[in-house]
């Protein structure tokens, strides 16, 4: 196919030529996405040239993105978070091609561990050999792998011979993305089939109770998903898999950005950071490696703490344990406060799993044990990120030692909208936050929030808004103790 640089140039040429063909086909009357009336060409048969141009345009755009974006980014956006809810009024006669989605098909490849099977076969393996190892029918498995190959995950090197590629090697069982994929392609995808039914339920539809989720309808379980995983020893393995998967999630969304973008060194030697609800501590491990001056506290439910202290950290970050720089302490943040007197209480992707009352319980629990100068740093997606210009940080009388002048310019980047004519929130370019928002609704009846909503939560808990940070995909909402609270 030629060198990668030539492939990129060729794809760009194809995109330009296809767009020009389609533009010419509209004969100067190109429709706007804002139009609500049909265009004269909408109901007419496309010319052969326009049909091919659309196919080239879609194929080239998808291949260009898959080529240039990080492979884990593509897997998360195009395979893991693309659930397709089933309309409530269609069941038996619902077309098969509409029921299928990338997560559904990828789940089979993950369950059969096909990337591992192909790992030592760079030239590919015939489908009969792959199917023999998997214990399944060859022609059906070939059809699954052919669909995935058309979406640039695996490659069909010749008829019925498949090999790994840049995307599929991310799905080896040794990669946390494999564990994340098993969760996202089953729990999320299965739950989504009950989303419309859940929304139409007169009791569950208007409810934000965690046990009134589409996942609960799908599984028939009366417990919330995380409680269900903790209910038996066998199911605890799913919880452990989710914990490992969150490492893959953090790597994919480049969660480590916060390690360098936030001025941790300004906290001073021996400063304490509590990673609350941090699972097995993926973020805390990054902090431990980058900032050995920090004292870290990792807090989550007992099972995750046992997993972190006995399995994950001894293998991944033993130097922090030897240096006594990490403390593992189980917590139920609905019943008790976290470790007292920490300089920063860090919450990544925690509050979005809970309704407002539970979020306030968590934040008030933190507020009780904060010392003067302590911060709460909520790491999350903000659905109003393109409206941050309306929410500039308020002035404070508290010395804000964490903000050297050099980082104040971060605000400028946050206020900058997407270049025209893109949607101001980047549309598909930042679709992940909106897909995750719906996934949370499916799994635990949770939701992403706007910046204003996080500020309001903080105020109700006795915390005051200081600053919104840009940390790659995620934003950081920083709060301090409100005077007089």
From TrEMBL:
GO terms for biological process: methylation. This is S-adenosyl-L-methionine-dependent methyltransferase. CDD domains: AdoMet_MTases. Residues 252-378 form the O-methyltransferase C-terminal domain. GO terms for molecular function: O-methyltransferase activity; protein dimerization activity. Residues 101-174 form the O-methyltransferase dimerisation domain. Gene3D superfamilies: Vaccinia Virus protein VP39 (3.40.50.150), Winged helix-like DNA-binding domain superfamily/Winged helix DNA-binding domain (1.10.10.10). InterPro entries: COMT-like, COMT_C, COMT_dimerisation, SAM-dependent_MTases_sf, WH-like_DNA-bd_sf, WH_DNA-bd_sf. The keyword Methyltransferase applies. The keyword Nucleotidyltransferase does not apply. Keywords: Methyltransferase, S-adenosyl-L-methionine, Signal, Transferase. Residues 1-21 form the signal peptide. PROSITE patterns: SAM_OMT_II. SUPFAM superfamilies: S-adenosyl-L-methionine-dependent methyltransferases, Winged helix' DNA-binding domain.
